[in-house]
């Protein structure tokens, strides 16, 4: 029996509009091959096969610290950064170090569904905060915090994707970030900033990060190469105070395992230090912007009245709001019959019913012809169900 290999969750021959992966034709395979060959031809190739430093590959840490200071003027040192196994590994590490079962954490409604999954795996008490076009509504967050305080409880952290949020595509403005930082200081919770789409922006600038606005105080900020290089490398980074990083680095998993993915981290470090990643990023933004524009044009043409959708300035996703006549489970079933798959909104909420009128489309992964065709099929199905 021959086993077919497909990307995570993708059905062979389908149009997977749910897939938040980089498109295969946008992967820098030749550049990564050159980086690996350069290391292979060096005098210390055996070092690739050893356990690594607990904090992560030193050359990659040096590269990231220099870049973040140059681009964002953060003023960090190598003691503020560690290498992690992608943002997913970072979320799990933070939960392991900062929480125990039953602790409260705050999330947006909607929020990244895989983070919600990890929080449930950890048996955390997940409380949601309503969002609008500017992200978490500060007044609602303040009321929730007061109610928790009255009950003698406080959240351990607030988890947020501030730029081109997964799934909604929104970006939180600076004023709202500052207001949430003030709440975090008042109520003593950390901010977990999952900033994985920062480099996939179609605008000139973004608001300063939570980390920058708080001068690193009680903010843990994650980045990843999964969106701009390749998810299979499982390499990302975590920014935090030097004391927090030291605590994480001394954890049993990193002590025993020798840091996050030392083999691939060395290759990524070589690739980045060559200058190829920066050039790839500049090209990649144009490619994803084109795909965003194609998806928006297809939606404008295909969707009936009563359907609204976000117009993100970066990232991978467009968030749709459906009319009340459309049942999301029924739509998903009808779409599957036509080999189209999307992400129902129910998976992005603490209370799944809140997502019953939403779905997420990704424009990052599928070929452009399939992107158009999949949206046309969904538009026709929604129109039929709305009639």
- Poorly predicted ranges: none
What is the number of E strands? 14
Q: What profile does the largest beta sheet have?
A: 8 strands, mixed
How do the helices and strands follow one another from N- to C-terminus?
EHHEHEHEEHEHEHEEHHHHEEHEEEH
**Residues in helices, as a percent range:** 40-55%
* Count of helical regions: 13
Distance between the termini: 46 Å
Proportion of residues in extended strands:
15-25%
Summarize model confidence as the mean pLDDT.
93
What Rg do the Cα atoms give? 21 Å
Please characterize this protein's 3D structure.
- The protein has 387 residues and is an alpha/beta fold.
- It is built from 13 helices and 14 strands.
- α1 crosses α10, α2 (58-72) crosses α10 (262-273) and α3 (86-98) runs parallel beside α4 (113-121).
How are the SSEs ordered, and which strands pair?
Blueprint (H helix, E strand, L loop, with lengths): L14 E2 L12 H12 L17 H15 L8 E4 L1 H13 L5 E6 L3 H9 L3 E8 L2 E2 L1 H13 L4 E6 L13 H14 L2 E5 L15 H4 L5 E6 L11 E4 L2 H8 L2 H6 L4 H12 L2 H27 L5 E2 L7 E5 L6 H10 L2 E2 L1 E2 L13 E5 L5 H19 L1
Parallel strand pairs: 1-12, 3-4, 3-6, 6-7, 7-8
Antiparallel strand pairs: 2-9, 4-5, 8-9, 10-11, 11-14, 13-14
Quick summary:
With 387 residues, the protein is of the alpha/beta class. The protein has helices at residues 29-40, 58-72, 86-98, 113-121, 138-150, 174-187, 210-213, 242-249, 252-257, 262-273, 276-302, 328-337, 368-386, and strands at residues 15-16, 81-84, 104-109, 125-132, 135-136, 155-160, 190-194, 219-224, 236-239, 308-309, 317-321, 340-341, 343-344, 358-362.
């Amino acid at each position: 029996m021959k086993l077919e290999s497909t990307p995570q969750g993708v059905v062979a021959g389908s149009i997977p509009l749910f897939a938040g992966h980089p498109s295969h034709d946008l992967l820098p395979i030749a550049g990564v091959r050159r980086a690996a060959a350069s290391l292979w031809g060096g005098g210390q190739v055996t070092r690739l096969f050893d356990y690594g430093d607990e904090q992560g590959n030193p050359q990659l840490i040096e590269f990231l610290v220099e870049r973040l200071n140059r681009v964002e003027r953060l003023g960090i040192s190598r003691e503020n950064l560690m290498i992690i196994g992608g943002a997913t590994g970072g979320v799990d590490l933070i939960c392991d170090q900062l929480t125990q079962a039953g602790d409260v954490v705050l999330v947006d409604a909607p929020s990244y569904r895989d983070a919600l999954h990890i929080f449930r795996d950890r048996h955390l008490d997940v409380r949601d905060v309503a969002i609008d076009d500017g992200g978490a509504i500060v007044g609602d967050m303040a009321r929730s915090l007061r109610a928790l305080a009255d009950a003698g409880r406080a959240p351990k952290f607030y988890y947020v994707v501030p730029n081109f949020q997964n799934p909604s595509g929104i970006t939180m403005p600076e004023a709202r970030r500052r207001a949430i930082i003030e709440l975090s200081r008042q109520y003593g919770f950390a901010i977990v900033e999952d900033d994985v789409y920062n480099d996939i922006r179609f605008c000139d600038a973004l608001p300063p990060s939570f980390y920058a606005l708080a001068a690193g105080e009680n903010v843990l900020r994650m980045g990843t190469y999964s969106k701009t290089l390749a998810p299979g490398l499982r390499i990302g980074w975590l920014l935090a105070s030097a004391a927090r990083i030291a605590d994480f680095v001394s954890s049993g998993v990193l002590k025993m395992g020798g840091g996050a993915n030392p083999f691939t981290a060395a290759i990524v470090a070589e690739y980045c230090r060559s200058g190829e990643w920066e050039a790839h990023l500049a090209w990649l933004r144009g490619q994803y912007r084109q795909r965003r524009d194609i998806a928006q044009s297809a939606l404008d043409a295909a969707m009936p009245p009563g359907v609204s959708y976000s117009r993100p300035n970066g990232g991978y996703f467009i968030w749709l709001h459906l009319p009340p006549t459309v049942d999301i489970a029924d739509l998903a079933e009808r779409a599957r019959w036509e080999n189209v798959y999307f992400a129902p909104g129910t998976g992005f909420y603490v209370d799944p019913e809140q997502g019953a009128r939403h779905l997420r489309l990704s424009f990052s992964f599928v070929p452009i012809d399939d992107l158009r065709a999949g949206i046309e099929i969904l538009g026709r199905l929604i129109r039929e169900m709305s009639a």
